[in-house]
């Protein structure tokens, strides 16, 4: 994969308008994930358990139990458009090291990059047929794949479709990473320069088209003016244009996505949000926009834009921020900025999200960290170790010993 990073990255630039430098990083990161997964898999799968029956009350030592991990069979992997290589590899590598075969259903936009990536596995010597790749629209082939009796596990990353898949899939293990409305809570004692830098990185990287993007800023009223000015100054420096030119903000993936984002913006405008920049759109290209004084009656306070539009809600207490975060039907990630470690832990404990970042924007990696969502943000936990374990099942062999007729002594 690292040898072929240039052509794969070029596909990402052309297919999903990902900036060139980010596209190369995605491919390199995916290669690193495969290497780590291979080593970790050998360790995990080399471990078994030995149990004896007399450790449970009322039993003699007449049974020995040996447990090991065995493959599930066929894993169906469905990655999203925004990371069609990395989020495919994060499913393929654990499945293969655990001994499974795999069917990959790449996203419609991102399929060419995914096919290039699968070709790398074949070039590396994996037998043909071990990884099957089925391209096509999810609306046409999704049900056939997800309800197929030959599928033994589904790993899906994406949006609302995942909920429908989970209802139809039946009695097989599911790994689902769905949407997020990742909240960034800024306390009064926060380092506001650090917070502003992370809001820009978290809210506007890849034009906000990330599950773990900062989707709402909840800032204490006393520091809100200062924070908003710092973020506005940084937004003004973001470059807007072509992914080939490595611009910070590039076109969103489809016209329907751009229309949805615009709907959220117009709703906020109608209800009195403060526009920190002029709203500007050309086709699928939307200029970065910070919306201040957003209130809970605006759609943007709750819905996931998946674009370069970020709402700021001013709060009068930490409890108010936590309440807004927890009132969401999403619970993927969140973050809190404060210099007080005790407060940060208390806020983290109170936030109903799979991961809380302290003094940093939400992020999925490093790829061996656990990664999971609560509520409508998903089922199960990802990260290399968790994925390998999820893509195996426990097999037990019990050796029954004859009941001793005498005692040795």
Automatic annotation (TrEMBL):
Domain of life: Eukaryota
Coiled-coil positions: none
EC class of the enzyme, as a word: oxidoreductase
Protein name per Swiss-Prot or TrEMBL: NADP-dependent glyceraldehyde-3-phosphate dehydrogenase
GO MF term (any one): glyceraldehyde-3-phosphate dehydrogenase (NADP+) (non-phosphorylating) activity
Keyword Membrane: no
EC number: 1.2.1.9
Active site residues per record: 177
Domain Aldehyde dehydrogenase: 1-396
Keywords carried by this UniProt record: Oxidoreductase
Family per record: Belongs to the aldehyde dehydrogenase family.
UniProt keyword annotation of Secreted present: no
Catalytic activity, reaction form: D-glyceraldehyde 3-phosphate + NADP(+) + H2O = (2R)-3-phosphoglycerate + NADPH + 2 H(+)
Record-linked CDD domains: ALDH_F11_NP-GAPDH (cd07082)
Pfam families for this protein: Aldedh
């Amino acid at each position: 994969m690292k040898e072929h990073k240039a052509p794969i990255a070029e596909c990402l630039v052309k297919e999903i308008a990902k900036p060139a430098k980010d596209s190369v990083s995605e491919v390199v990161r995916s290669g690193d994930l495969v290497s780590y997964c291979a080593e970790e898999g050998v360790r995990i799968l080399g471990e078994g358990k030995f149990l004896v029956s007399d450790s449970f009350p009322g039993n003699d030592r007449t049974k020995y139990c040996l447990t090991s991990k065995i493959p599930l069979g066929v894993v169906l992997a469905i990655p999203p458009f925004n990371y069609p290589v990395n989020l495919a590899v994060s499913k393929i590598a654990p499945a293969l090291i655990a001994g499974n075969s795999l069917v990959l259903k790449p996203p419609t936009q991102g399929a060419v990059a995914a096919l290039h990536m699968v070709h790398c596995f074949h070039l590396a010597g994996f037998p043909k047929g071990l990884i099957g790749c089925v391209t096509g629209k999810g609306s046409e082939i999704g049900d056939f794949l997800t309800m197929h009796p030959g599928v033994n596990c589904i790993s899906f990353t994406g949006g609302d479709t995942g909920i429908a898949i989970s209802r139809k899939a039946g009695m097989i293990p599911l790994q689902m990473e769905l949407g997020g409305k990742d909240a960034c809570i800024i306390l009064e004692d926060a380092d506001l320069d650090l917070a502003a830098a992370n809001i820009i990185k978290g809210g506007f990287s890849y034009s906000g088209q990330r599950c773990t993007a900062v989707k709402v800023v909840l800032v204490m009223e006393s520091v809100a003016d200062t924070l908003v000015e710092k973020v506005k100054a940084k937004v003004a420096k973001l470059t807007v244009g072509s992914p080939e030119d490595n611009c910070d903000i590039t076109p969103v993936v489809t016209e329907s996505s751009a229309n949805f984002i615009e709907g959220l913006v117009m709703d906020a405008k109608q209800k009195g949000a403060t526009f920190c920049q002029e709203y500007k759109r050309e086709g699928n290209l939307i200029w970065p926009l910070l919306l201040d004084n957003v209130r809970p009656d605006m759609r943007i306070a709750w819905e996931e834009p998946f674009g370069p539009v970020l709402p700021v809600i001013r709060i009068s207490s930490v409890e108010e921020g936590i309440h807004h975060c927890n009132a969401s039907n999403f619970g993927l990630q969140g973050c809190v900025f404060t210099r007080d470690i005790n407060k940060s832990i208390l806020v983290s404990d109170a936030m109903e999200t799979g991961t809380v970042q302290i003094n940093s924007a939400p992020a999925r990696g490093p790829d061996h960290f656990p990664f999971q969502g609560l509520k409508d943000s998903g089922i199960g936990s990802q990260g290399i170790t968790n994925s390998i374990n999820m893509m195996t099942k426990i097999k037990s062999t019990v050796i029954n010993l004859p009941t001793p007729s005498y005692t040795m002594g």
